[in-house]
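Try it yourself: sequence plus flavin-adenine dinucleotide, in.
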Amino acid sequence: MQESKPHVVIIGAGHAGGTVAALLRQYEFTGPITLIGEEPIPPYHRPPLSKAWLKGEANAESLALKPLEFYAENNIDLWLNARVARVDRVGKKVAFLNGNILAYDILIIATGSRAIYPPIPRADSGGIMLLRTAADAEQLKATIGPGKRLAIVGGGYIGLEVAASVRGMGAEVVILEREERILKRVANPILAKFFQSYHEARGVTFELGCHVASFGSENGQVTGVWLGDGRGLLCDAVVIGAGVHPNEDIAKEAGLECDHGILVDLEARTSDPYIFAIGDVTRRPMPIYDCLFRMESVPNALEQAKQAAAAITGRPAPAVEVPWQWSDQYDLKMQIAGYPFEADTVLVRGEPTSAKFALFHLKGDQVQAVEAINSPPEFMMGRQLIGSRKAVDRVKLADPTISMKEVVAERDA
Ligand code: FAD
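Structure, out:
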């Protein structure tokens, strides 16, 4: 008698979900795969939404993770416009918003995260947008153009990327940040100052330490922003870039262990042996730093997709990667490796005013993280140094006349 093959159901047809479906086939998994997504289009790359897509340098084809035919050709059942409302772990079933039920043998939760919608009066006015989906980006692109004024609530990387892109489209931009500096949550003051100056030199204005009290609107359409100090700023549109929340609600309701993200191990396993979770929705171990962390990046989604696909197909767990991500603004390519946990020193290699430099975050003589602006060797070798945990010569690292190759070779000697 032939053994029946397990049915893998993936909730969330985003970067992680789309990747794990493709990897399962690549790893010769022959059972049925159902990939469920609430958006109307197949899995796509989100990073271009604030960059190339907004500037008109990407199209639907280049945005897609795989062409639509890929799913049928690989026997992956792709259900779009379908939202899972509940997971029944005892019955091993998922229930859809429309009442339908689907049984699984193995479940992968890849529901990502959602943009935070701050409770500001009249935030539901027309022209006030989040930027999480292709539909959001399409709306923004249609609204912005030469002479339009855009207010961006939140001076994080997404806000800065949007600002750079829409300046290129001829729009005026003001960034409203409640902290006294931009990038407070994710970067140190040197980098924040560099980005602010770079944007200001290209016409972006900043309101720092400001409280957005309410939005002004006329006939349901946004016309401006009221600040806590009583000032009003006119604008034609608003983008809210105030961070994201993990979409962990269905996992929590099903009783899976969660702590601001579904808790998983390095095989992407949750507290239920039949359920995996991957991508933005998880809080995962970071062995390099000996802690748990929730990452919001494409490389993390890819790494965890590999972990889950390997575990499901009985392959050895892949080697743990040094986390990394990137941000593109104007002609700046920033690459970040690691996280500056417990760093005691920030070492600047190169001159920020040249727009080609790197910040190394050190804990003792170990590199914890590197932020490299237009400096690929610093990023690549910095990433190596983070992974190896070996001591580095601080003096040499700070000297841009000594190549990174030499800095790393010195450490190996
Ligand atoms: P997602 O890609 O968000 O996919 C989750 C999917 O699940 C979504 O389609 C969602 O609709 C669906 N879903 C949720 N709940 C349900 C449900 N109950 N039923 C059915 N479907 C559901 N990362 C980088 O590394 N570099 C960058 O430069 C970068 N830039 C970015 C720019 C923007 C504008 C955005 C929005 C993100 C950016 N990111 C960047 C982050 C990166 O895109 C995410 O980390 C990545 O998409 C995470 O993949 P994921 O599959 O976990 O989540």
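One thing you can check immediately is this: The mean pLDDT is 96.
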